[in-house]
Sequence to fold (223 residues):
Amino acid sequence: MVRWVPMESNPDVWNKFLKEMGVVSGWEFTDVYGLVPELLMMVPQPVAAVILLYPISENTEKLGVEKLAENEEVSDKVFFMKQTVGNACGTVGILHSLLNNSDVISVGDTLNKFKADCSSLDPMERARLLESSEVIATKHAAAASSGQTAAPSADEKVNLHFVAFVSVDGSLYELDGRKERAVNWGPCQGDELLTQAAQACQRYMACDPDEMRFTVVALSKVD
Fold:
C-alpha cells in the first residue's frame, strides 16, 4: 500500500497546499472554534465545505454505517473518490471540498485536469489515479512537512481521520474515501452548509464525548 506523510489539521498548511496546487486566491481554510451559533457566526461566509477531523472508534464506525444505510440516494453531481493511499485522508478531504465546488472556486489547471480525467472513472479508479499522481503527491508532501509539529513518518499508524461535508444539489453529503459512496445526510442548501455540517459534526462528537481530538475547518470565501 502506498503511504503518504499525514497532513496536520492546520489551515495554514492546507492553504499552502491550495496555493501550491494553483487554486486561485480568495478561498481559504479557516478554523471553526466551536459549533454553537455564536461561534459559527465568526466563520467567514460563504462556506463551500467543512472538514472534520475525528478519532476513529467503534462508536464513530457504527454511526457511519447507520448513516450510509439511512439514505442511499446520491446525486450524480457529487464528485466522490475512494482512498487507497495511506494517510492521505487530509488531501482526499481537500480534493472532495474543491472538486465539488469547481463551479465557484477556480481550482487551477492541475485539479481541473484531474477532475476531467476522473469523469469516466468509478470511485476506486479515481483513487488509483490519485495514487499515481506524482504532482499531487509532491504537493502533499511539501504541505505535510510545513506544519507546526514534526510530521510523523509515512509508515506511522494514525487513528485520526478527515471527512468532508459539502452541499450538492440540495443535500448535505459526507465524503469519506473509506466508505463505498457519498453519505447523504439530508436536505441542505448552500447557505445552510455550515450549520447543517456543524450538526453532523456534533453527531460524531457525541459518539465519544470524553474525546478531545476533534477539529473542524471550513473552506470560506475571504475576499
Remarks:
- The longest strand covers residues 47-55.
- Confidence is low (pLDDT under 50) at residues 150-156.
